[in-house]
Design goal:
The chain contains 1 helix and 11 strands. By secondary structure, the chain is mainly beta. Helices cover 3% and strands 49% of the residues.
């Protein structure tokens, strides 16, 4: 059975930090590309960051310099370290996996990701 399970969300004050984890089971972690997306109330789900099996990373402009994506292939886990959090980072964060070519124009395309987690809520307060 293929599963992605996110954890680490919560309530944090603006300027604070959180670390999200995505534990993968089954065939998902053999997927070349792992990514994080987020969905805020009233907004469409948007791309946040991606990482391939060799560790190359790509970020949405709004999180560059604040968020760091990493993966531990031995533990089948992907992480999203979020620093200097802003109120506008409030969203449900989803982990995704798929054989997505590591090209900026394609990494944003949700339909290319085969597997999705259930999401974890991140709330940033003032």
């Amino acid at each position: 059975q293929v599963q992605l399970v996110e954890s680490g969300g919560g309530l944090v004050q603006a300027g604070g930090s959180l670390r999200l984890s995505c534990a993968a089971s089954g065939r998902t972690f053999s997927s070349p590309t792992m990514a994080w997306f987020r969905e805020s109330p009233g907004k469409e789900r948007e791309f946040v960051a991606a990482i391939n099996r060799s560790g190359s990373t790509y970020y949405e402009d709004s999180v560059k310099g604040r968020f760091t994506i990493s993966r531990d292939n031995a533990k089948s886990t992907v992480f999203l370290q979020m620093n200097s959090l802003k109120i506008e980072d409030t969203a449900v964060y989803y982990c995704a996996a798929g054989s997505v070519p590591f090209l900026s124009g394609l990494l944003h395309s949700q339909e290319l990701y085969y597997y999705w987690g259930q999401g974890t809520q991140v709330t940033v307060s003032s």
